[in-house]
């Protein structure tokens, strides 16, 4: 059984240990023969993706759990989607993914009011203010990003949960923009993580 | 939080996000994804917890 890790382009040097590659046109399929389903295997999958990010010019992570009976079956699956995979690799070439989340301060919601209507008015005011804040952050970050993907959030969760596709060379500038925003709005918790392999932008349509 | 515990918390938070990303994001080629993963019941810790941990970590620096 074959476990698919990712598709890559421009992979230089030896692949990570226990990992093999097969090339189809401009697409390198990265796979292994270990097919466990434990948390340890999931973490290993993530570690392999991190290693690939350092060795390849473009990485399209595969979601954990994509399995093929043989290498030939994997090769056939890649061959039938070759052009779409090449296009998807070109879209993420030279890029990493950075995740940005914003949460309001725990005490940020309006205090309980005696009057229900007054409460709703205060609440709406806060919601509008927060939407404007998040929109200004997103605009600032998009200047440094090639693409962005914003998660649709359930009510009362995070204010902003987004992934940005950022050129490697622009990571410092992007992080500085996040820091400036966090400093300007100390009432918000702003967290930026990464660089990650660009899984949020790994669409083969 | 002691100084000794900080790297460990950071490591744990990173792992939670890594596992979440590996299971929920990325190319699905055949749509035939194996869904059940043994021993990953602590995958979804919740972003609020994740954020709280990171904020606590940053404040303690």
Descriptive key words:
heterodimer; A: 205 residues; alpha+beta; Alpha-Beta Plaits; 2 domains; five-stranded antiparallel beta sheet; 27% strand; elongated; B: 61 residues; mainly alpha; 2 helices; 54% helix
Quick structural summary:
The complex is a heterodimer of chains A (205) and B (61). With 205 residues, chain A is an alpha+beta fold. Chain A has helices at residues 39-55, 71-79, 82-92, 116-142, 171-184, and strands spanning 2-9, 20-24, 27-32, 58-61, 67-68, 95-104, 147-150, 160-167, 188-196.
Please characterize this protein's 3D structure.
The complex is a heterodimer of chains A (205) and B (61). With 205 residues, chain A is of the alpha+beta class. Chain A has two domains: 2-92, no CATH class; 95-201, Ribosomal protein S10 (Alpha-Beta Plaits), CATH 3.30.70.600. In chain A, 38% of the residues lie in helices and 27% in strands. Chain A is built from five helices and nine strands; from the N terminus they run E-E-E-H-E-E-H-H-E-H-E-E-H-E. In chain A, the strands form two sheets. In chain A, strands 1, 2, 3, 4 and 5 form a five-stranded antiparallel beta sheet that branches. Chain A has a four-stranded antiparallel beta sheet with strand order 7-8-6-9, with helices on one face. The longest helix of chain A is centred in the middle third of the chain and has 27 residues, at 116-142. The radius of gyration of chain A is 21 Å and the shape is elongated. With 61 residues, chain B is an all-alpha fold. Chain B has helices at 5-24, 47-59. The longest helix of chain B has 20 residues, at 5-24. Chain B is rod-shaped and about 40 Å long. Chain B starts with a helix and ends with a helix. At the A-B interface, strand 1, helix 1, strand 6 and strand 9 of A face helix 1 and helix 2 of B.
């Amino acid at each position: 059984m074959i476990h698919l890790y990712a598709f890559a382009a421009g992979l230089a040097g030896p692949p990570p240990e226990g990992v093999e590659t097969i090339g189809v046109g401009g697409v390198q399929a990265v796979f292994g023969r270990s097919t466990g389903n434990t948390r340890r295997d999931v973490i290993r999958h993530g570690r392999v993706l991190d290693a690939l990010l350092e060795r390849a010019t473009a990485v399209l992570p595969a979601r954990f759990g994509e399995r093929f009976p043989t290498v030939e079956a994997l090769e056939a699956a890649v061959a039938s989607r070759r052009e779409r995979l090449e296009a998807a690799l070109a879209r993420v070439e030279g890029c990493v993914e950075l995740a940005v989340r914003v949460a309001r301060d725990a005490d940020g919601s309006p205090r309980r009011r005696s009057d229900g209507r007054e409460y709703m008015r205060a609440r709406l005011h806060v919601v509008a203010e927060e939407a404007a804040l998040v929109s200004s952050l997103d605009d600032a970050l998009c200047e440094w990003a090639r693409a962005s993907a914003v998660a649709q959030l359930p009510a009362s969760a995070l204010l902003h949960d987004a992934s940005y596709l950022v050129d490697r060379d622009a990571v410092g500038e992007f992080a500085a923009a996040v820091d400036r925003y966090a400093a300007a709005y100390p009432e918000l918790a702003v967290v930026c993580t990464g660089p990650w392999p660009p899984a949020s932008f790994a669409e083969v349509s | 939080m002691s100084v000794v515990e900080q790297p460990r918390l950071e490591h744990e938070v990173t792992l939670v996000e890594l596992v979440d990303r590996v299971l929920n994001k990325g190319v699905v080629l055949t749509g035939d994804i194996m869904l059940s993963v043994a021993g990953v019941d602590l995958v979804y810790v919740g972003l609020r917890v994740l954020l709280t941990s990171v904020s606590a970590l940053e404040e303690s620096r």
